[in-house]
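Re: weekly structure request thread

Next one in the queue (503 aa):
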Amino acid sequence: MSIGKVWLVGAGPGDCGLFTLKGYQTLQQADVVVYDSLVGAGVLTMIPARARTINVGKRASHHTLPQHETNKVLLREALAGNKVVRLKGGDPFLFGRGGEELELLAENHVPYEIVPGVTSSIAVPAYNGIPVTHRDFTSSLHIITGHKRAGEEYNINFKALVDTEGTLVFLMGVTALHDICEKLIENGMDPSMPAAILQQGTTAGQKRIVATVSTLEEEVKRQGIETPAIIVVGRVCALAEQFGWYEKLPLMGCKVLVTRPRELQSAMSERLRLKGAEVLELPAIATSAIPDNKALEQAMSRLTEYQWIAFTSPTGVRIFFDQMLSYGIDSRKLANVKFAVIGTGTAKALKERGFLADLMPEVYDGEALGKLLAATASKEDRILLPRAAMGNHEMIDALEGFQVDDIATYDTVYESQEFIDEAKLFEEGSMTCVVFTSASTVRGFVEATKGLDYTKVTAACIGKQTKAAADAYGMKTWMAEKATMDSLAELVEKIHNASGTGK
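Done, posted below.
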């Protein structure tokens, strides 16, 4: 068996948008992913479904695996011939013990690569409006580990740090805040020097406390802080109020769960992230073409007999045209066919295949599409309806009396994942809402969160059928004015504002 390879990949500070392109590309080809507790949930959901995962999480004094055991895991998996991604919060070489993990690999001649990550020591101050360098304030930056063993003195030259007059960033130092501030003042720092503690930067939990090196501890006791957090000391901290930008975004502080089919990238997620939300993607459903689909094969053999083809989802479009290719059917067979689509997303998917929609209802649901098609088509027209096996009956009811071939082309399978504890997030109230773009994603979410008290779930629903599915489980439901992604994003903003945390 050939030897594998290890990649040490920095996952960044939390916001999955700060995960590097090379990091993402490396992650997608992994056989095994070894990750820790500081990796953001948004990045964890990017792990490919086929990859085996190993949690070696470390946070505070609670270690899933000691460091030397983690090193052995990487060696064992690589020697077994696997492509191993060691996914680490921040940057693997900045207090990430990446060098220690390489030692055993190097001794055993295991190939490896380093993929640097965006470090919280720069990104978190930036998200709080604090430039770590500024020509009018300081020309140097110093990053220090604030971690020390209980009862031991710091092995840090605080006098040298003070003398630099640079910006000081202490990582992992929240529990030692008193000692850090005291040592700085003892070694000559002006007690009125601006200082800040920055909680859970780049995520919905971001919080900033700015004071002075002599008053920061008191302010933390008064206002409260949660880990992970970093400490910044220096005159640049005084710029936070002036330069703060993240908190001005309309969805800052909003944490949203977006359900989607695994194979689809979520346009909704991107809309929400641009508005400042922390978005966790839950691939609650997966879709797969029905194998050996004789009914579809027969329908495609006589495509010229149809006057209309109606699509009720982008997935339906994708699978229909993929199956055409697999059957060796030329798309010119569709020259005289008209297309009806349920909404803009489906119309876009059809356009990507080279066809424009002829018909689309103002209300994007199956009943409205069926009624509009019934009012437009002739009774002599033959209609092909390729759609999900669990498609609703409203559309067929609206087309009663027409020649309709209602053919199931794909199955919907419910999925679960191990990286996000959805039940805990909703139970503790840290999740603003969950976004549903179809009734099937509601059912997939329920399947993945068995035991959750759904009365604690706020649901943003794209339409009435989706809302009805969420209502059936007792969720607190809101419905978009229009069944579009833009309208759904606006709905999330309304929910956020109504929650009392919006701007």
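Residues 348 and 370 are 19 Å apart (CA to CA). The chain has a mean pLDDT of 90.
Next request, please.
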